[in-house]
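Amine oxidase domain-containing protein
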Amino acid sequence: MPTFLVVGAGATGIGAAVRLTELGIDHLVVDAGERLGGMSASVTDGAGFTWDLGGHVLHSHFADFDRAVQASGVQMHHVTRNGWVWLHGDGPQSLVPTPIQQQLAELPADLDPDAPIGHLADYYRNNFGSRLYGEFFEPYNRKMWTLPLERVDHEWTSLRSGSAARNVPVLGLAGGPPAPASTFPYPVGGTGALWQAVHDRLMTPDALRLRTRVLGIDPRAREAHLDDGSTVRFRFCISTAPVTDALGWIGWSEGVSTLHASRVHAVGLGYSGPPPTTLADKTWLYCPADSVPWYRATMLSNYDPANAGPGRWNILCEVPIFADDPISAPDAVEGVQRSLQLLGADPGKVVSRFVETLEFGYPVPTLGRDRLLRAADVRLRAHGIYSRGRFGGWRYESSNQDYGYVQGRQAVDNALSGTPEDVYWHPERY
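Predicted structure tokens:
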């Protein structure tokens, strides 16, 4: 039997498998999907457009991740950040550069950053004032999380991966210096190309089974039952399946219903010809307006021109699916096309329409989430199960690609020797 069973071939599962390959420990990786990368996969449609499943920005805080990227051999574009807010969704006149708080003429008079904070709504009101809260932070975050902000914790704002110190948002308000222009790396061929190359160069050959779903796990026997009819015994399991599934494997339901994941339609439109001037230099746009179906749009052809091909451009929009008023995939595509027409995108030049519905978009940091996760982790590890990654760990603030990759590595080391898993629980240290 393999010493380790790895469930999922996204960033975390690949990180675990690379570490096991380095250690020479036998393992098996299974993934229900048809491609590597999980949420960081890339899809090329029938018209030749390449789509990521989200607006990914590649960061690195870890030497282990740097080594994996270098060993992959994948070339990188260095893309200049140029994010904008489409504040009212009514045309180019309401496009505002990010960060939006720096566009105020003067500091709000109702800032109170030392006031008590009970949830995310309090955090934004206290730190940015009622005007910015009402015009941007509340509507945008409600679209992104698909929940009222009173149900979302605020602690993630000081733990979000990428910052080693607590955020001090008031310093970025009116009168502060503009943020310096910066670039970020983006893999040639899309984010999925990076993870495919890491697999090809750093993972054990024949240790991966795609299109293979875990139907259930017997925690006492430490056996996984797969949909190909086979049974796999293991000593340890690194699972990136939703932690709600993992808790079902051990028959634990206490508090699980309080966990919430957003649902998203990833809608991509590919156009012939050049992009309109309003979008030609943008990397991404945020939109809080209820009249616009998406909350974030990513100009993938500005990340890598090959995502669209010569003489074409493409844009990916993330459309939230609210439980009380769900939007269908066809309606999401139609709504995206209409909204982009207001920014100058000619609907007559659309040559590709892509949509993929993600049942798990974001793991939402709801109130009480961490208490539940810590209790669940103790129960799962008692059965040799390490539930990690974007939804396995359910910690949004720990789920950038580099953090996910190192989560997998650290889970392996913790299982074997008790080495601390700082990346999962303490992203703010890096």
